[in-house]
Amino acid sequence: MYGEKKIDRKKTSTRTGSLNPTFNESFMFDVTREDMKNVSLALTVAEVEQGMIGRCEIGPWTEQWREMMDTPPKPATRWCQMKELTPSCKSPAV
């Protein structure tokens, strides 16, 4: 995300038949070091019948982002705490 604008999108594989799926996948985005100050990464979890059910954002305000910037090109591997989305905050534009 660049501010509120979506600039790229990647999708994991689908996990069926699991109430606790694990996604151990890596993605690469081509972003300049200068632009890293103005972008963030929004992670969402969706279920086929319910749509989007959780979201997490990381960006310059997070420890993971600072670690990634301090130790390039080493990946900053972390678990992300997803926040449950209530019906009032679900948005198809996310």
TrEMBL record:
Q: Which residues form the C2 domain?
A: 1-80
Reading the lineage from the top rank, the first entry is Eukaryota
SUPFAM superfamilies given in the database record: C2 domain (Calcium/lipid-binding domain, CaLB) (SSF49562)
**Pfam families per UniProt:** C2
**Which PANTHER family does this chain map to?**
C2 DOMAIN-CONTAINING PROTEIN (PTHR10024:SF374), SYNAPTOTAGMIN (PTHR10024)
Q: Per the similarity annotation, which family is this?
A: Belongs to the synaptotagmin family.
> What protein am I looking at?
Synaptotagmin-7-like
Q: What is the lineage of its organism?
A: Eukaryota, Metazoa, Chordata, Cephalochordata, Leptocardii
